[in-house]
């Protein structure tokens, strides 16, 4: 069994992989490292980066039917990427009739913004 | 020719995969998406996240001989992870006698800190 003690269930339901401790956090546990790595893994594909980019610039949820032609990828590929991004908690999915609409989970993105922060890691040692 | 206007040459020489456009950047090119995904891929492993964490909290370059016992991974595994992180431009490697010492490329980390920023992407539409 994999350990997932870092997550509580209510978060797990929506955002299984989203945590995340800053890379510079003191006392990072193995579980923190695994959840942080899982988010990076979800984003480790150019198609997914482009999906995130398109949705970051959208004012409203975007239909999968509009994403697919924009990306120049096949519909199954786009659906696969979207599924992985939703599973990682980075996107939110909403069903409207026959189509699914996707939007960025901005709260999660803001939290991820702290990942690369180094302030405080060395007591103000930055130049 | 690939577009690499986001990089200046001096950085490019040392940091082949490090760019990076914010996910919310307008006009992200396919090449931008690829280089951004490459950085995420380099970090998409718990061992590498832990290496980054250890080095973020170090005041000086750390010997590979000290990293290996700290991580509880085999020496070849640690060396493989370190190589990938250096190739991505995230770490710097320095040979001192028989040992290699590693430190975080803080300039690159600071740049990566902008990846998840959403400000400006929608003209102040955040709540």
Structural class determined from secondary elements of chain A: mainly alpha
| SSE succession of chain A | HHHEHHEEH
Low-confidence segments of chain A = 1-18, 121-127
Assembly type of the shown chains?
A: homodimer
Q: If you compute it from the alpha carbons, what radius of gyration of chain A comes out, rounded to the nearest whole angstrom?
A: 16 Å
Q: In DSSP terms, counting alpha (H) and pi (I) runs of 4 or more, how many helices of chain A?
A: 6
Name the average pLDDT of chain A. 81
Q: Biggest protein-protein interface?
A: A-B, 42 and 42 residues
Question: Could you explain how this protein is built, in words?
Answer:
Two copies of one chain form a homodimer. With 127 residues, the first copy, chain A, is mainly α. Helix content of chain A is 46%, strand content 11%. Chain A has helices at 9-14, 30-42, 46-56, 64-71, 75-87, 106-112; strands spanning 62-63, 91-96, 99-104. In chain A, strands 1-3-2 form a three-stranded antiparallel β-sheet. In chain A, strand 2 and strand 3 form a beta hairpin. The longest helix of chain A has 13 residues, at 30-42. The termini of chain A are far apart. The model of chain A is unreliable at 1-18 and 121-127 (pLDDT under 50). Chains A and B meet through helix 2, helix 3 and helix 6 of A and helix 2, helix 3 and helix 6 of B.
